[in-house]
Amino acid sequence: MTLAADSLDTFYTHGFDAVIDVRSPAEFAEDRVPGAINLPVLDNDERARVGTIYKQESPFKARKLGAALVFRNAANHIEQRLSHHDGAWRPLVYCWRGGQRSGAFTWMLREIGWRADVVQGGYRTYRRLVTACLYDMPLPHRLVQLGGYTGTAKTALLPRLARRGVQVLDLEGLARHRGSLLGDMPGGQPAQKGFESDLAQALHHLDPARPVVVEAESSKIGQINLPPALWDAMKTAPWVEIAAPLKARARYLAEAYEDILADGERLKAKLAPLRFHRGHALVDAWETLIADGDRLALCRSLAEDHYDPAYRTSMRATAPQVLHREETAALDPASLDDLADRLAERLHTIRI
């Protein structure tokens, strides 16, 4: 049997015991159906080899080699990764377009006695649905942007608000980036398609009838572009703004960016392009603070002389509707908890 998916909800509520992606590891790494495991029937090199033979020599020769490799790899998965499943196991299988790779593997699973189904159209069906959700249709959710100068702990406030019953969408968490010049995180960012899959799934679990708080961002987080449906909704969303003293923000930044600040040479390289925007004298001063190990003074200057002017320019250009402005004297965990209490109370009463 085949699973015909006409909405993303089909992939989120399919009811199968497992979802198996039989594409190559490289294809799987870029993006996958949520919850899928990778049991490739052709690895990266094998897929490239079969493709080359298909184009340069003979489609028949390529299919013959491909079949041998597919069944050999499938047998290995059955003997190892799948050997513990009983006869009632129900897996859902897909490849790139629901063709030979998933068809062959699903046939083998059924011959054993497992109740395997294949996704009609494969990964391409899933990807078309994600694209339609994020590129072709307006977002049904009502957003509230959480704004404020850099260092006002907006990212740290999101999980606190979620624990208080506020719907939140953590874009920096999904993009695995802190959303600024120094925002790189260990492990790097996902592929654009992978980010969009995670975003579509996160949106699916949010109630469109209730406001969703999202941190104010530009249209790009690191190397990730925000899809049009989301960005259009963010541009017109009202704001709730956080305000904190420069001293508190500098202290918070010094702690939040400790990993970046610890590598002086890497930090200098990241700041070097700002010579064309902020001038050589300021960047030279930053490099002196890096050499002296004065992280607090560096973070204060980065905020005061770089991030804050950029924020003010952006606010003048976009002129968002600010519904509420919440101030905090400090940004330590206890102060953030108190701030989250006050914000949650306000957000629960907001009507947009």
UniProtKB/TrEMBL annotation:
<dbReference type="InterPro" id="IPR001763">
    <property type="entry name" value="Rhodanese-like_dom"/>
</dbReference>
<dbReference type="InterPro" id="IPR058840">
    <property type="entry name" value="AAA_SelU"/>
</dbReference>
<feature type="domain" description="Rhodanese">
    <location>
        <begin position="19"/>
        <end position="131"/>
    </location>
</feature>
<keyword id="KW-0808">Transferase</keyword>
<dbReference type="InterPro" id="IPR017582">
    <property type="entry name" value="SelU"/>
</dbReference>
<protein>
    <submittedName>
        <fullName>tRNA 2-selenouridine synthase</fullName>
        <ecNumber>2.9.1.-</ecNumber>
    </submittedName>
</protein>
<dbReference type="Pfam" id="PF00581">
    <property type="entry name" value="Rhodanese"/>
</dbReference>
<dbReference type="Pfam" id="PF26341">
    <property type="entry name" value="AAA_SelU"/>
</dbReference>
<keyword id="KW-0711">Selenium</keyword>
<dbReference type="GO" id="GO:0043828">
    <property type="term" value="F:tRNA 2-selenouridine synthase activity"/>
</dbReference>
<dbReference type="InterPro" id="IPR036873">
    <property type="entry name" value="Rhodanese-like_dom_sf"/>
</dbReference>
<dbReference type="GO" id="GO:0002098">
    <property type="term" value="P:tRNA wobble uridine modification"/>
</dbReference>
